[in-house]
Write a structure and sequence with these properties.
Its main location: cytoplasm. Catalyzes the complicated ring closure reaction between the two acyclic compounds 1-deoxy-D-xylulose-5-phosphate (DXP) and 3-amino-2-oxopropyl phosphate (1-amino-acetone-3-phosphate or AAP) to form pyridoxine 5'-phosphate (PNP) and inorganic phosphate. GO terms for molecular function: pyridoxine 5'-phosphate synthase activity. Its EC number is 2.6.99.2. It comes from Sphingomonas molluscorum. The protein is α/β, with parallel strands linked by helices. The chain has a single domain, classed as TIM Barrel. It is 47% helix and 17% strand. Strands 1-2-3-4-5-6-7-8 form an 8-stranded parallel barrel, surrounded by 8 helices. Helix 6 links the parallel strand 5 and strand 6. The N and C termini lie close together (6 Å). It binds 1-deoxy-D-xylulose-5-phosphate (DXP) and the ligand NCC(=O)COP(=O)(O)O. The site of 1-deoxy-D-xylulose-5-phosphate has 13 residues, from loops.
Length: 242
């Protein structure tokens, strides 16, 4: 037995569809409330600097209306720090961001940006926000997270998700080793990016992983089956893996 694992549903891409037409629907907050009702223990939203999906108004509404913890994904900028301090989400996950990227490429270089991140992590922590660092499964990054005093790391599973089943084993071991190292150092371990029904089980089976944040696949699948059954199925796969 490995203990329970939480599912955080990322609702960014409900906002992507809304923003495609500049309409008021579909509403990501409505999706978040439904996901929470059917088993999501948290909601993740990434307020990108270019506001391509989630907007400032979405963050304000999520902060006010959610019955479960909000995990705000944010770039390490002064603007985002100000927004986080204003809304005080349960958690803030610092992610690397490049304006031109299609999605988050690689993890935060916590080791390379140590001095810059130190004051940001401290400011978030002082405000009572649980800080998470979205990192590659590498010992140097975990060591930096420990020295920065981050209570949580989220391991980037994007590379794992892109590999075919035969090639996945090496990356899976990197993730499992990183999870064990982080937990040994007292850091809570989360994971996410690119997870689907087909690839989630080995990640959910890593004993130290306490939370998965999953979005793009769930929102896409919901077009066919509806959000509630899709969240329920992901929950069931995660639970069966423990
Ligand atoms: C950091 C991360 O993994 C998530 O934010 C997720 O990728 C959704 O945002 P994008 O699809 O815009 O990258
Ligand atoms: N941090 C990962 C996340 O929130 C969801 O990523 P994805 O499932 O949308 O790729």
């Amino acid at each position: 037995m490995t203990g329970p694992i939480r599912l955080g549903v990322n609702i960014d891409h409900v906002a992507t569809v809304r923003n495609a037409r500049g309409s008021g629907y579909p509403d990501p907050v409505r999706a978040a409330l439904l996901a929470a009702e059917v088993g999501a223990q948290g909601i993740t939203a990434h307020l990108r600097e270019d506001r391509r999906h989630i907007t400032d108004a979405d963050i304000a509404r999520l902060s006010a209306e959610l019955p479960v913890p909000l995990n705000l994904e944010m770039a390490a900028t002064e603007e985002m720090l100000g927004i986080a301090l204003r809304h005080r989400p349960h958690a803030a996950c610092i992610v690397p961001e490049k304006r031109e990227e299609r999605t988050t490429e690689g993890g935060l270089d916590a080791a390379g940006q140590f001095d810059y991140l130190a004051s940001m992590v401290a400011a978030l922590r002082d405000a009572g926000i649980r800080v998470s660092l979205f990192i590659e499964p590498e010992a140097a990054q975990i060591d930096a997270a420990v020295r920065l005093g981050a209570p949580v790391v989220e391991l980037h599973t994007g590379r794992y998700a892109e590999l075919d089943e035969a090639a996945r084993e090496v990356e899976l071991k990197r993730l499992a080793d990183a999870a064990a190292l982080a937990a040994k150092n007292g850091i809570e371990v989360h994971a996410g990016h690119g997870l689907t029904f087909d690839n989630v089980v080995p990640i959910a089976a890593i004993p130290q992983v306490r939370e998965l944040n999953i979005g793009h696949f769930l929102i896409g699948e919901a077009i066919f089956d509806g959000l509630a059954p899709v969240v329920a199925r992901m929950r069931a796969l995660m639970d069966a893996a423990r």
